[in-house]
Amino acid sequence: MQIWLARSLVGRNSWMRLRQAPCEAGCGWSLATGSTRTAPEPHQGRQGDAQRPWSEIALVLHTNNTGGAPQQSQRSPTPPDSNNGLPDWDRRTAADSARPVSPRLAPSRCSEKRSRHSHRYRSIDTAVSDSTAISTISTIHTAISTIDTISTAAAVKLALQSPSAPPPSFQKLFSPVAMPSLEEQYATLKARFDAAGQGHLFTYWSSLTDSEKALLIENLKVIDVERANAIFKRTYGKPEEQHPKIDPLPADAVDSTLSASKEKLDHWRDLGLQLIADGKVAVILLAGGQGTRLGSSAPKGCYDINLPSKKSLFELQAQRILRIQEIAAAHKSKADGKEVIVPWYVMTSGPTRAATEQYFVSNNYFGLKKENVFFFNQGVLPAFTFDGKIFLENKYTPAVAPDGNGGIYAALRNEGVIADLERRGIPHVHAYCVDNCLVKVADPIFIGYCASKNADCGAKSVPKAHAHESVGVISLRNGKPGVVEYSEIPKSYAELTKPDGTLVYNAGNIANHYYTTEFLKRVEYIEAELDFHIAKKKIKHVDLASGESQSPTTPNGVKLELFIFDVFPFTQHFAVFEVARKEEFSPLKNAPGSKDDSPETSRADILNQTVRFATAAGAKVVKGEKQDQNDIPVLEISPLVTYAGEGLERLKGVTITTPYIINSEADIARLLA
Question: Which of 239, 257, 348, 591 counts the most CB atoms within 10 A of its CB?
Answer without folding.
Answer: 348
